């Protein structure tokens, strides 16, 4: 143990030395004045085809909006934010615009409403122009590209100190790549600036206020907008809410550990019931043991499957990706079956789902998560001492033997420059509706309750005993959908918080 502690102490020094070149003094940006932003708020848009089949098929069009890269210097360098618009189906009853964000951060949102609008009633569709957006630094909006060799900035630490040391080196390298590729832009890829961009979009569209639908990280963005522009917020729906006091790569990811471990138990029980198909174990305990032995096997020697070498840093991410919905349990069982067969020496070509997940995890195809890390690290600073993460990681293994190694691992934010602005303190009385599943594996139920407490004008609709991340358009439930559609159509929030059962 003493030798391990010495090794970790050396890692701390080495890791911080590697990150030192990235550290610059934090700068608090003064707010821009209305006059200095006038040219942005009154620009004219050139609507054109989005070249996205589903969006174009709904009559959607796209436009570029110019915004300041740095709102503290509005006369300086600019950047472009791309938005889409699906017109209200009945202009005579049109109420206004509904902006959106699909989460991430780093999620492209131009076609977000193609599927999500299917959960809306004709009455709601009649009343709103549905506005999608690629936020600054994402997708078509001058995407951040750190040229990462792997797809995820989140990584499992492995099973021992050697695996953790590998993570420290990897995460330091990812941060250094971002600083080299995008250094000048990184301080401005923040949630507060995206909220400012949203208000420019509001003005350019000629609206006094905006309605909004945000999922996952998008709930935090919506809450920040309500905090910064409370008089500009209309009907706001937050689906799968972040804890605003835990927002940031450390708190948010730590909070994923327990619900994902619980989802692993639920999946293991489901898989045991289907042992005749997947042959991973006849009991939940046997399935879980099979997974943990497979991770240990990958730590000793990467598992070759098709063109991929899957190690203990990447194998559990296959389950993490699948566990955002119980609808994916069969897919997860099939993927673990394929990996187990490959570990046994069989020549296996991964199916389309597994190959797609591994391409993202290991090859950054079609894209990496550097836009997400740019926002997370740019919003909230993270501890820099690797030993801090190792202590938390080891403490978590007793109750989270699989997902503790993700929830407490070091990230690129440990080697990032400090944020340019302080995080937004959320606390206001703007009316809004929060919808949340109790088993959410990405933004846990306790976090949604915290958002509910911070937003004193909110009502909360809870979907009981379902482990799904975000509900609207993903997991049909008439109780939840009725509450959302009534609010969006008529502005009527539930008289009290609601509890809905799985259908």
Automatic annotation (TrEMBL):
- Domain named Peptidase S33 tripeptidyl aminopeptidase-like C-terminal is located at 401-500
Looking up Gene3D superfamilies in the UniProt record yields:
alpha/beta hydrolase
Q: Where is the signal peptide?
A: 1-25
Q: Which domain of life is it from?
A: Bacteria
The AB hydrolase-1 domain covers which part of the protein?
Answer: 98-245
Q: Does the keyword Transmembrane apply?
A: no
Question: One GO molecular-function annotation for this sequence?
Answer: hydrolase activity
Note the PANTHER family from the entry. Answer: 2-SUCCINYL-6-HYDROXY-2,4-CYCLOHEXADIENE-1-CARBOXYLATE SYNTHASE, TRIPEPTIDYL AMINOPEPTIDASE
Q: What name does the UniProt record give this protein?
A: Alpha/beta fold hydrolase
Protein's organism? Nocardia tengchongensis
Give the taxonomic lineage as stored in the record: Bacteria, Bacillati, Actinomycetota, Actinomycetes, Mycobacteriales
């Amino acid at each position: 143990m003493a030798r391990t502690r010495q090794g970790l102490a050396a890692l701390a020094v080495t890791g911080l030395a590697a990150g030192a070149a990235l550290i610059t003094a934090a700068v608090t940006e003064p707010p821009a004045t209305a006059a200095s932003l006038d040219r942005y708020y009154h620009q004219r848009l050139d609507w054109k085809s989005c070249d996205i089949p589903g969006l174009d098929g709904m009559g959607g069009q796209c436009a570029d909006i110019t915004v300041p890269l740095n709102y503290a210097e509005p006369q300086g360098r600019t950047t472009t934010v791309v938005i889409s618009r699906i017109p209200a189906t009945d202009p005579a009853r049109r109420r206004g615009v509904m902006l959106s964000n699909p989460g991430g951060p780093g999620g492209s949102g131009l076609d977000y409403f193609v599927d999500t609008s299917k959960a809306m009633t004709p009455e709601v569709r009649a009343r709103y122009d549905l506005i999608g957006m690629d936020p600054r630094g994402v997708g078509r909006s001058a995407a951040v590209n750190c040229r990462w060799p792997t797809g995820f900035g989140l990584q499992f630490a492995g099973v021992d100190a050697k695996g953790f040391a590998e993570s420290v080196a990897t995460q330091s390298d990812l941060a250094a790549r971002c600083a080299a590729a995008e250094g000048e832009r990184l301080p401005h890829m923040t949630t507060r600036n995206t909220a400012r961009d949203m208000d420019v979009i509001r003005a350019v569209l000629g609206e006094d206020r905006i309605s909004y639908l945000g999922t996952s990280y998008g709930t935090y963005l919506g809450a920040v907008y309500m905090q910064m522009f409370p008089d500009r917020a209309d009907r706001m729906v937050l689906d799968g809410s972040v804890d605003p006091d835990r927002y940031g790569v450390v708190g948010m990811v730590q909070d994923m550990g327990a619900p994902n471990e619980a989802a692993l138990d639920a999946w293991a029980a489901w898989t045991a019931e289907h042992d005749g198909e997947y042959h991973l174990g006849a009991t939940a305990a046997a399935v879980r043991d099979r997974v943990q032995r497979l991770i240990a096997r990958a730590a000793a020697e990467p598992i070759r499957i098709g063109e991929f070498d899957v190690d203990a840093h990447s194998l559990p991410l296959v389950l993490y990706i699948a566990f955002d919905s119980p609808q994916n349990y069969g897919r997860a069982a099939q993927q673990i079956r394929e990996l187990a067969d490959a570990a046994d020496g069989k020549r296996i070509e991964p199916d389309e789902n597994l190959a797609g997940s591994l391409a993202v995890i290991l090859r950054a195809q079609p894209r990496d998560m550097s836009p997400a890390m740019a926002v997370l690290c740019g919003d909230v600073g993270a501890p820099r001492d690797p030993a801090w993460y190792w202590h938390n990681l080891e403490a978590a293994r007793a109750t989270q033997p699989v997902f503790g190694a993700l929830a407490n691992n070091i990230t690129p934010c440990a080697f990032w420059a400090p944020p340019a602005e302080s995080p937004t303190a959320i606390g206001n009385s703007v009316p809004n509706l929060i919808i949340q599943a109790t088993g959410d594996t990405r933004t846990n139920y306790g976090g949604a309750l915290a958002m509910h407490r911070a937003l004193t004008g909110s009502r909360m609709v809870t979907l009981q005993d379902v482990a799904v991340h975000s509900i609207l358009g993903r997991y049909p439930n008439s109780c939840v959908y009725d509450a959302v559609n009534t609010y969006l159509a008529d502005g009527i929030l539930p008289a009290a918080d609601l509890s809905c059962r799985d259908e």
